[in-house]
Amino acid sequence: MTALSGFFPPKTASGASALIPSPPWLYSGDLLTVEYRTDPARVRELLPEPLGLAEEDPGAVALIWADWQSCSSGRDELLDPVRAQYKEAFVVVRCSYKGRTYSRCVYIWVDKDFAIARGLHQGYPKKLGSIHQTRPHPFGPAPRIEAGARFGATLAAADRRLAEAVVTLREPSETNGFVNGHPMAHNRWVPSIEKGKGLVLDELIESGGASFEGGKSWRGDADLTLFDAPTEELSRLEIREPIAAYYRQVGVVWDGGRLLESAAQ
Amino acid sequence: MTALSGFFPPKTASGASALIPSPPWLYSGDLLTVEYRTDPARVRELLPEPLGLAEEDPGAVALIWADWQSCSSGRDELLDPVRAQYKEAFVVVRCSYKGRTYSRCVYIWVDKDFAIARGLHQGYPKKLGSIHQTRPHPFGPAPRIEAGARFGATLAAADRRLAEAVVTLREPSETNGFVNGHPMAHNRWVPSIEKGKGLVLDELIESGGASFEGGKSWRGDADLTLFDAPTEELSRLEIREPIAAYYRQVGVVWDGGRLLESAAQ
Amino acid sequence: MTALSGFFPPKTASGASALIPSPPWLYSGDLLTVEYRTDPARVRELLPEPLGLAEEDPGAVALIWADWQSCSSGRDELLDPVRAQYKEAFVVVRCSYKGRTYSRCVYIWVDKDFAIARGLHQGYPKKLGSIHQTRPHPFGPAPRIEAGARFGATLAAADRRLAEAVVTLREPSETNGFVNGHPMAHNRWVPSIEKGKGLVLDELIESGGASFEGGKSWRGDADLTLFDAPTEELSRLEIREPIAAYYRQVGVVWDGGRLLESAAQ
Amino acid sequence: MTALSGFFPPKTASGASALIPSPPWLYSGDLLTVEYRTDPARVRELLPEPLGLAEEDPGAVALIWADWQSCSSGRDELLDPVRAQYKEAFVVVRCSYKGRTYSRCVYIWVDKDFAIARGLHQGYPKKLGSIHQTRPHPFGPAPRIEAGARFGATLAAADRRLAEAVVTLREPSETNGFVNGHPMAHNRWVPSIEKGKGLVLDELIESGGASFEGGKSWRGDADLTLFDAPTEELSRLEIREPIAAYYRQVGVVWDGGRLLESAAQ
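^ inputs. structure came back:
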């Protein structure tokens, strides 16, 4: 009989076909973060029990663009970059669980299948999208990372633009924002294959980076616009008050999380 | 507190953001099927316990291209066709479970995110790919569905061509092939978020169409070529002997499956 | 010395690399046409001298979606369908030249490079876009071509939706509309490589199908919406009055055009 | 009557729809160059009269990957980066004209329509492709620009991989290679709209950067593989002897060229 290998389907004798390899997963990338306040009721309606609103600044939202190169521990993907490079835009809010504050991704769009699969494992609610952000460059018309530099960022899905931002950097910053600064509290839900039978997996999990390095953060301000779309609710997180925008280059390792609780079936 | 809605993430108060709605899922499409025999050992190595090789013709493989329009019961997707249309190429073998013969998809590539999500639910090991097949047309140079008509079909992933076929139709057929003719026996596997802890969901499920309609099948022959790629093992299912090729237009409804067994954690 | 071959660059000794082969070019496809009236001044501002507004119904516009399979006379592309299939959406108005009425394409988006190159040759002002239209199908939820059938059509470019329509078929029709029914009067303009020196090619040409076959036309009505975008002016052709919508399957051959006049350099 | 505006079609009253604006065009980007020697006869067969082989090292070829952000003088595109970012892979050889040595691009693939249009203006024989190259990054697993750093680069078109390279940097270099170091000698050819009537534009033009800035060049070596494809002849430029590989970040302005000669019609 066969022992199938592979962290993720398709599983085979060798495991070479798996859409994603087992962690650790390594990332190099640029983060462009736009923070603002929305109606806290719009955040609360996205938090399943037993999660509650964060105690302080419960309506704070971060819309983050990220331009990644990622790989497994063998790093082969970096040399076949169609398998390493992807972009994403994601929306983070904060929540509380047993008295502790967590970050939580409520919407996320990526442009590669391996990123979808990693997100499923980590509890990110991933869809495909078209994501672009200005890249810093040392020469020519593209911006350096410096005061006055301007970066554009856009998100579309299903041929509709969902968000666009122009960020102007103002000064170095001690932080890269506060909304995405906690461990993530995510759900992993799998519905029964049998119709109407509810969930067969219903987990609340915690996850965060296993290691992190990064350059100086820059703080600035953003012009951010959210657009309506028939299958998206991003624009319900309406912009009541801008907070700030940030730019940072980082290196991250992700190597698994921790089960917080599981609803038995 | 919040009751989140939606069959699939992202879940929201309304459920409108879910990547896929709850079944039933309705499909209109064209199936181009190429059947051949490979070394049965190459099939066996893809079958996890307790599945075994099919008793008859255990090395039979079907490589199937499908050009779909799909929707939920509300049918809204059909009028915003970027949300309805997708293409796929998938590889089916047969297996036996408790004395019964099943079909099983061992590899599959699609070109939309909603198709990935439906596949995850149904136990299809989906990846993104670039899939093309000649479409029949009543006018001009494209083929009619008739004797002598030729259809091309290609599959690529990660910028590498994985398979290509040219099918020539010969005559009407009583069947559309035999490899994909049984209920599907698929696994649904979810690894623990905690590193090294194995699976938290490990199901063997059965699934098939809830209803089906279709046109006349046509039988013909195929020139099929499989190509190597570093992250794919399709070409291990090497072509030992052609069987036949088929073309059929169908309408299908999928409305859930049945749990065969679950390995408790 | 070398004689380079090929209808279009890149030219090589064999000509095999040319982005497009020499005509004739053969097409099979489905046309979804939405006709409406706009302010004739908005049409006039798109007509270069010596073209003038059409005498009758000068504000009539056709926005046409087309789902094509195309090939050269050798027909090889049909068997490698990534090289044959493409979609387009284009805007046609009418104009007059020396007392004769012509059709003229003022905007067009396609989704393949060979379609861009053919358009350049023919004087179509092509850009890349993302184009979708519902396909008729004999089974399942997709529409048949019949009274009451509904087809959706959308156009996006640069991650912004530019147009969307839902067409409902009502009855067979003697025509497939009237705006796109004349020979095309197009310009072919090439600016000098030397800055500020104007055009080195400035032609007005006439072109039309070399042969045509088609099925029954269906007439219906459309809900059409045009959207603004910073690099597009489609929405300036604002909808003042709907005319009708049409659906037809066709086969077409294009085999060259005729020079009407050329501004000498 | 109307005066149409715009450097390139579609031309309108405002010019805002033009696929590309008038030069100057500004670029920031990373160049990964692989130089090798092929059979000079394979170079010669790509050179139209009156161009001849370069006197020294006539079989030298440069295969160059470039990851660009580009804009017009208004720089708006940089803030809507889907309109600024593109990638390309191109093949350069050298040739002689009237005793002077020129560089010449014989094949090029890009991934955006505005890049195709600029290439048409400049005489680059552009097609669409899928192009990827590893990006340097200061953090995480992606390489820094330093000795021992490894960069992958791949090119595909029509769902087939055409070339792949892995470059290892060894040391700083005084040059970024020599094959792409001369002014470009390109042809601009436009066939008559009338069948069989030959060219209506047949120019030999010269072009080069109007200004240039760049960082330190790095030299290294490459593993380069070229693949056959039915509509491409890149692999005819077979690799006889590697020369070297280079990496450099640059800023470039292009602002028009010069007519060398024109074949009268």
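Chain D touches chain A at residues 26-29, 69-71, 75, 78-82, 84-85, 130, 132-135, 137-143, 150-154, 164, 166, 213-215, 249-252 (CB under 8 Å). Chain D has one domain: 25-184+211-253.
thumbs up if we can close this ticket
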